[in-house]
Fold this protein.
Amino acid sequence: MGIDRESDISANLQIGPTTLGMVRIYIEAEGVDLPLDFEPDEAEEIAEELRAAANLARKSGKGRKG
């Protein structure tokens, strides 16, 4: 599977701070339990990448409508 392919896999995503001052992205799916911890600066970089990708998806007209 590539980044540009749709998938039928469903997962839960949670994002929040840890008690150690990190930002955790927690992914849970069938057979997957994946906590990913990032320094706050790294988390801000990820947020910027998400915003940029959302803008590109919106411009391409292929973003899903809720």
